[in-house]
Amino acid sequence: MKNGTYLASHTPYGYRIENGEYVIVENEAEVVKQIFKRYLSGVAKKTIADMLNSTNVPNREGTPWQRSTVEYILGNERYTDTLFFRRHIPTRQSRLRISPIEVYITAVNKLREYRCEILLPAIQQTENLYLRAGSSTLKIKEIDREIAELSDKNILITRLHSNGIIRSFEYSEQISAVNSKITALRKERTRFFEERDENGTLSGLKTLNNRLTDLKKPLTEFDSELFAETVKGITVPNNREVRIEFAGGLTVSEKIPDRRRCRKNEKQENTIRLRNEERCCCNKQR
Fold first, then answer.
1. 213-240: string of b/e by CB count within 10 Å (b at 16+)?
2. Using CB atoms within 10 A of its CB, is residue 97 exposed (0-12), middle (13-18) or buried (19+)?
3. CB 208 within 8 A of CB 247
4. How does strand 21-24 pair with strand 231-238?
5. Closest C-alpha to 39, from 75, 82, 65
6. Which residues contact residue 109 at a Cβ distance below 8 angstroms, ignoring those fewer than 6 apart?
7. What is the pLDDT of residues 267-284, one digit of tens each?
8. Which of 85, 206, 244, 263 registers the highest number of CB atoms within 10 A of its CB?
C-alpha cells in the first residue's frame, strides 16, 4: 500500500507495479480500450473474446481469451474509477455524460443480434392483423403456398442439374421461369399489404429488418444514412434511460449506467420528488 492505494497480489491487466505504485502498460491499455469501446458499441462479451483470439492478442497467462476475462475487465473498478479510464477510454461530454448516439449504436447492434426474435415476429404479427381486418386471408395463403411450391421446384431443378440430368441451358431457362413467377407473386403479396398499411407500420418494420440484414458486422461508429432511414426520434424521458423510436413504431429503451448519469440532474429529480411527497402529506393532514 502506498498513498492510500491497496496493491493487489495479482496486478490487473494493463498495469505493472513500480516502486509500490501502479503504472500503466501502454500496449495492454490499448487492448482494454478496445474492449470497452466494442462493448459500449453493443458487441457481446463472448464475441469480444473471440475477436481478441482471432487477432492473436496475448493475455498475461498466454491462454485464449474467455468471456469471463472480458467480463472481469469490464467490471473491474480499477479501469472505470481511476486515471486509467479517464486517460484511455474516451467519453463524450453531454447533459447525461453519455451521447444518445452511443445508445443508438448499442440499440442497433442488439436489434441486429436478435433480429429473428424481435423483428420477424413483429412483421408477422402486423401482417396477421391486416389479414384479420381484411377479407383476403385465403388469397394470401394461396400466394404463400404457390411461393413455397415454386421454391421447392427450384431446389429440385438445381439438384437435377448438379447430377447432370438436365443440361445447363435447360437449367437456366427453368430457373429463370420459376424465379419470374416467384417475383410476380411476391409483388402481389406486397401490394396487398401496402394498400392496408396506411400508417406505414409494416413498411417501416420491413425497412428496418432489411437494413439490419444488410449489416454484416456490428456498428462501431455512427451511420447517418442508416439513422435517417430507420429512426423516427430519440427522447430522454429522465436521467436513467434513453428511448429510441425506430421505423415501424418499434421503441427501444436503453438504461444509462449509474456512473454515466448526470448527478446534478438526478439530485434535482430527487428534490422534486421529495417536495411532491411533502405536499401530499400536508394535503392529507388538512
1. eeeeebbeeebeebeeebbeeeebeebe
2. middle
3. yes
4. unpaired
5. 75
6. 41, 42, 43, 218, 219
7. 444 444 444 454 444 444
8. 244
Sign of the CA dihedral running 100, 253, 77, 12: negative
Q: What is the dihedral of CA 214, 217, 222, 228, to 10 degrees?
A: 10
- The three grid cell numbers given for residue 190, joined into one nine-digit string: 406486397
Relative orientation angle of helices 201-214 and 100-113, to the nearest 10 degrees: 90
Q: Scanning the structure block, which residue is given the C-alpha cell 472480458? A: 70
Q: Which of 70, 108, 117, 114 is nearest to 219 (CA)?
A: 108
Grid cell of 249 as nine digits = 413504431
Cα 172 to Cα 158: distance, rounded to the nearest angstrom: 10
Q: E strands, the chain, where?
A: 15-18, 21-24, 231-238, 241-246, 251-255
Task: From 223, 222, 245, 250, select the one nearest 232 (Cα to Cα).
Answer: 245
> Distance between CA 11 and CA 129 in Å, rounded?
59
Q: Return the closest-CA partner of residue 61 out of 74, 72, 77, 48.
A: 72
- Cα–Cα distance for residue pair 208/193, rounded to 1 Å: 17
Residue 14 DSSP one-character state: T
The Cα–Cα gap between 20 and 30 comes to 23
- Spatial neighbors of 58 by CB under 8 A, at least 6 apart, are none
This prediction's pTM: 0.48
What CA–CA distance (Å, rounded) separates 175 from 157? 7
pLDDT value, residue 150:
92
Label residue 19 left, alpha or beta by phi (over 0 means left) and psi (-120 to 50 means alpha): left
User: Each residue of 13-69: pLDDT tens digit?
Assistant: 887 888 777 788 888 888 888 887 776 666 778 888 999 999 998 888 888 999 888
